[in-house]
Amino acid sequence: MTRYILRRIFMMIPVMLGVTLLVFFIISLTPGDAASMILGQEATEESIQELREEMGLNDPTAVQYVRYMGGLFQGDMGRSYATGKTVSSEIAQRFPNTFVLTVSAIFLSVLISIPIGVVSATKQYSIFDNVGMIIALVGISMPSFWTGLLLIIAFSLTLGWFPSGGMEGFISLILPAFTLAIASTASITRTTRSSMLEVIRQDYINTAKAKGVSKNVVIRKHALKNALIPAITVIGLEFGILLGGAVLTETVFSWPGIGRLMVESIQRKDTPMVLGSVIVFALAFSVVNLIIDILYAFIDPRIKSNYS
After folding, report:
1. DSSP 3-state helix, strand, coil percentages of the chain (rounded to 5)?
2. Are residues 108 and 254 in the same domain?
3. d(CA 8, CA 10)
4. pLDDT (tens digit, 9 = 90+) per residue, 10-60?
5. Structural domain boundaries enclosing 36
6. What pTM was estimated for this model as a whole?
């Protein structure tokens, strides 16, 4: 298991290199100039060129990338073009907010989707099953920003139950977390239902029923444990999707997280801040997938034997 974990950690290095390379060159192709945005519209061409030279923006893109990576390998993610603060300090300030939002959303998704998926499978083609699948289809089809706007109109502007944006305690977390959770809830529900349908038709489930074991015990102790493996895979993938979805959701709800910071940085062509945000997202996604793979070993002993 230790060797497996170390191997997966080393595999993150080329992933991070690929991500930074791709994002860096994409940003370099986007229109706009960081120096012009910093100095404003009234700046002279001479002052803009002087700032570009000072920031190293006149160097070839490849040279800028090598210089950035040299600092990154030394633990320096650079400084924001817009604020002058270090990227690491800005991200450290914003990341806890994004983490709380994402974890809250995935917790809501699991809390809702697993029971619905299990009941839908055990009561296949019932009214509950049909209604649950229709709701799941609607949920997975709605973009997060559209869902967020609908929730703001309904529960903030019309009913006045929740704030429409900002970060003002637990109550301001409810709408953005629920917005993120809707699409992932639909995916996890469908996966859990499909996995449960496959498991409950296995011979060992029929054998347990034939021995007189109650239906609830068969579902809880035998079927659910094996059906959770595909669901856990989807949960891990959904966590990464939720991190990406947080970019739009945080913007809609003015949530002060990394997603909103990245959108603002893209608008200002703040390359170090955009790169730092993307690296954190990619690293978080890789770590979550590693944790999911490790969880497999505790759920299914057959998988654990492959790690050793």
Report:
1. 80, 0, 20
2. yes
3. 5
4. 777 787 788 888 888 887 777 766 777 777 667 777 777 787 777 777 778
5. 2-73
6. 0.75
